[in-house]
Write a structure and sequence with these properties.
Pfam family, one: ABC_tran
Domain ABC transporter: 4-236
Radius of gyration: 25 Å
Largest sheet: 6 strands, mixed
Structural class: alpha+beta
Strand order of the largest sheet: 6-7-8-3-9-10
CATH superfamily of the largest domain: P-loop containing nucleotide triphosphate hydrolases
Protein name: ABC transporter ATP-binding protein
Family: Belongs to the ABC transporter superfamily.
Distance between the termini: 37 Å
Shape: elongated
CATH topology of the largest domain: Rossmann fold
Keywords: ATP-binding, Nucleotide-binding, Transport
Number of strands: 19
CATH architecture of the largest domain: 3-Layer(aba) Sandwich
Bound molecules: adenosine-5'-diphosphate, magnesium ion
Order of helices and strands: EEEHEEEHHHEHEHEEHHEEEEEEEEE
Number of domains: 2
Length: 345
């Protein structure tokens, strides 16, 4: 599988401001990398530069392995693409849609038929080979789009929000299929999404983007547990803000005091819901007391909003069977090793 290297790839559209600051990034061969960020942050633009649908501003270079592909048009880069909208031929059969790229590449008939059949089996589409695409469900169409992109054995697979148009249940099952497929084929893949759950589930690494810049690159675990700034911390999962006071080597936070090496003064810290434990109000070793202002039953757990009277309310997870409800009073214990002290957005 081929590695991809972006070297100083920025993008300014004619008459527009800069959509993408010059970006340096190496994607390893066989890796699935996810571009994650809010709408308009430059994910699609970056993907289109890798595809050859957009060229970087002067000075930018795109490499596939040792080959400089900056000036190569899309049809000579051998990339497969899947979009949010299926972009299939509606009046052709499933098999004809999948065979299309092979025909264009003049793959001979017997070989073509064998590869189409293999790919349809792999995508659980064997039974639909003769069906017209406009008679398929959204999830099945997206499977056809994937099959069509992969059957030509692209050097690189590019996916731009392929699940966004599907409903939740289909999204989950197709996400699992994509995961299995990417891991099985070992193809270098770039996956664009604004959905952090998808990014965490699929990415070997995630590139978090904000306003045309890379905010952080790392494994899903890095990004979640060691965000490098407040934007990333807030964008991925739920994050709480608590304020403390640093004085002579100790950080006072509610009733608690933790060892602290920073300068004296007020400190804002971040902590995930799962790093706050619930106890009875005033219980020993708790740091804060609070009032449950809302309790949302989520099945596997109940998410509480707890007002402490000091700063914004905290999000805390309770076991569903705890029976905690709005109006209850609780004590909170913060895991000191999980407190993050980050530059704010
Ligand atoms: P994302 O995929 O993260 O939502 P895009 O890469 O599509 O973001 O867009 C990034 C920025 O570039 C946006 O501000 C968008 O309006 C702008 N942009 C994208 N394509 C064009 C274009 N063809 N012409 C002008 N501006 C564009
Ligand atoms: Mg986009």
């Amino acid at each position: 599988a081929v590695p991809i290297r972006l070297e100083s790839c920025g993008k300014t559209f004619p008459g527009g401001s800069r959509a993408l600051e010059p970006l340096d990034l190496t994607i390893r061969g066989g890796e699935t990398i996810v571009f994650l960020g809010p709408s308009g942050c430059g994910k699609t633009t970056t993907l289109r530069m890798i595809a050859g649908l957009e060229s970087p501003d002067p000075g930018g270079r795109v490499w596939f392995g040792e080959e400089d592909v900056t000036a190569l048009p899309i049809e000579r880069r051998n990339v497969g693409m899947v979009f949010q909208s299926y972009a299939l031929f509606p009046n052709m059969s499933v098999a004809e849609n999948v065979a299309y790229g092979l025909k264009v590449r003049r793959v001979e008939r017997a070989d073509r038929e064998r590869r189409v059949e293999e790919m349809l089996d792999l995508m659980h589409l064997g039974a639909f080979a003769g069906r017209r695409v406009d008679q398929l469900s959204g999830g099945q169409r997206q499977r056809v789009a994937l099959a069509r992109a992969l059957v030509v054995r692209p050097r690189v697979l590019l996916l731009d929000e392929p699940l966004t148009a599907l409903d939740a249940k289909l999204r989950d099952s197709l996400r699992l299929d994509i995961d299995r497929l990417l891991r099985g084929l070992g193809v270098t893949a770039v996956y664009v999404t604004h959905d952090q759950g998808e990014a965490m589930a699929l990415g070997d690494r995630i590139v978090v983007m904000a306003k045309g810049r890379v905010a952080q690159i790392g494994t899903p675990r890095d990004i979640y547990h060691r965000p490098t700034d407040g934007f990333v911390a807030d964008f991925i999962g739920a994050m709480n803000r608590v304020s403390g006071q640093a004085q002579s080597g100790a950080l006072r936070l509610g009733r608690g005091a933790f060892p602290w090496s920073g300068p004296d003064g007020p400190v804002e810290l971040l902590i995930r819901p799962e790093d706050i434990a619930l106890a009875a109000e005033g219980e020993e070793d708790t740091h804060l007391d609070g009032l449950v202002a809302a309790a949302v039953f989520l099945g596997d757990r109940t998410r509480l909003v707890v007002e402490t009277g000091d700063g914004p309310p905290l999000t805390v997870d309770a076991a569903s069977r705890s029976g905690l409800a709005r109006g209850d009073r609780v004590g909170l214990r913060l895991d000191p090793s999980r407190l993050l002290n980050l530059p704010q957005p």
